[in-house]
Amino acid sequence: MILATARPADALVSVQGPGGLVRLVLVVVVCTGLAAAINGWGHLGHGRDSLLAALRACLQLLGVGLLIAAVLGSWWLTLGFITLMVSVASVTAGRRLAPKGPWGFAIAPVVLGAVPVAGGLMLSGLIPHQTIAVVPIVGILIGGAMTATTLAGRRALDALRTRHGEYEAGLSIGLLPRDSALLIAREDAALALVPGLDQTRTVGLVTLPGAFVGMLLGGASPLQAAAVQLVVLVALLLVQSIAVLMTVELVAGGRFGTRLNDHATS
Fold first, then answer.
1. Residue 4: which H helix or E strand, with range?
2. Which residues contact 24 (CB under 8 A, 6 or more apart)?
3. Best label site of 11, 86, 209, 211, fewest CB within 10 Å?
4. What is the C-alpha to C-alpha distance for residues 78 and 131, in angstroms, rounded to an integer?
5. Phi/psi zone of residue 3: left (φ > 0), alpha (ψ -120 to 50 degrees), beta?
6. CA dihedral angle for residue 140, residue 238, residue 199, residue 52, rounded to 10 degrees
7. Which tens digits make up the pLDDT trace of 165-205?
């Protein structure tokens, strides 16, 4: 299985020549500006975040584009780049869950979700032992673990805040703090699995994911493209399940600033 690169003429987005670059800038500015305006108009609270996220994406993609050739030329640099991805994903998820607290624990669900699954895929032989194949697959898995950790953690923390009376009721009948917290938070946290499940159920019918389309544009057969996408989807299901389970356990143990043993909400 080889991850091919699309030819410029077959690219999904055309940026050939000055005109293409101008169109790209206009689309990015208009989409980002409208997203920020709608957030502001609807009082959704993320107008500024939309602008900053788009700016960071531009700078980061430009930087990665300039460095990726050097990174992919060395296994040591590739491992360093993967470590950077894991670190950024962990910090991003952790700060979402505990902006003023011990957010470092978020590294556990991200690493334990993505790294063993990626290692298993490499051992299976389905992913070629080439940096050009390893980096994008591992990046997708790390991103899935980060998203699952953030969503599960936020849902679990919100459940414990809004249903704290039920948590205390569990303690009153003899449940341990961890068990009472799990009873309240587990179902809400499991909703973080729904996007991945829906994406897997509807693949090819509602969306054509990037890995599938990229393989086709790169000259792979439909069977090869489908195989790559299937491996990515089922691996993500496993990654997200591990990440959600770990996140719920961490929340129930008070690792993100929740002082459950003292019956206090965060």
1. none
2. 13, 15
3. 11
4. 7
5. beta
6. -40
7. 888 888 888 888 788 888 888 888 999 999 989 988 888 77
